[in-house]
């Protein structure tokens, strides 16, 4: 019986982690890639400027 209790501990921990993960994920807002792509475009423009000067 003691072995079953020790096996239930990781099972309950996995269930609790799944519930917490689903709860934590529901509060996130969907965000587009706009800001990241804008930053990448600025980075590419800066790199092209630095290479065209040589």
Average pLDDT reading:
85
C-alpha Rg (nearest Å): 24 Å
Number of DSSP strand runs: 0
Query: How would you describe the oligomerization state of the chains in this entry?
Result: single chain
Overall form: elongated
Major beta-sheet overview: none
Task: Please work out how many helical segments DSSP would assign.
Answer: 2
How much of the sequence lies in strands comes to under 5%
Question: What are the secondary-structure elements, in order, as H or E?
Answer: HH
| Poorly predicted regions | none
Q: Class by helix and strand content?
A: mainly alpha
* N/C terminus separation: 76 Å
Percent range for helical residues?
over 70%
SSE inventory with pairings:
Blueprint: H1 2-26, H2 34-52
Model description:
It contains 2 helices and no strands. With 54 residues, the chain is an all-alpha fold.
Structure summary:
The chain is mainly α and 54 residues long. The chain is built from 2 helices and no strands.
């Amino acid at each position: 019986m003691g072995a079953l209790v020790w096996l239930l501990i990781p099972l309950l921990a996995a269930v609790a982690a799944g519930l917490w993960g689903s709860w934590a994920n529901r509060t996130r807002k969907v965000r587009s890639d706009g800001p990241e792509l804008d930053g990448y475009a600025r980075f590419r423009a800066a790199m092209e400027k630095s290479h065209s000067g040589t």
